[in-house]
Give the backbone structure.
Amino acid sequence: MTMASRAISAYVQTGIESGVPEADAHRLVAMLFDGALSAIADARLKLNAGDIPGRGSAISKAIAIVEQGLRASLDKSQGGELAARLDGLYEYIVGRLFHANLRSEPEALDEASKLLGELQEGWAGIGAPQREAAFV
């Protein structure tokens, strides 16, 4: 299974379908980052409002995107050490999200958001040269 097909499958499984048919593999992963960060931001709002079911739902969505989207799209057979490290980092992020939900801890949400944001920036950076080359 190619990275694109794994990413499409993972993206559809998380229930975020807008824009999927036109997106390439790089864009699909970027959309997963957007979705996870959006779900964490929603969880933070629900946490602050005291909406326990809403917080749980938003955190569950973020976890699903990280687990079934970002983590599932890793090609561990081709990605070597980088894929293994990303896998471990995604596992850690999911743990922080679980912790945030169980303990109502905004700091754990902040940490998960910060880590995903840094990964998102890196992902965007590796895609920019490819997009620029297409227009030259």
In short: The chain has one domain: 3-134. The first helix runs from residue 3 to 13.
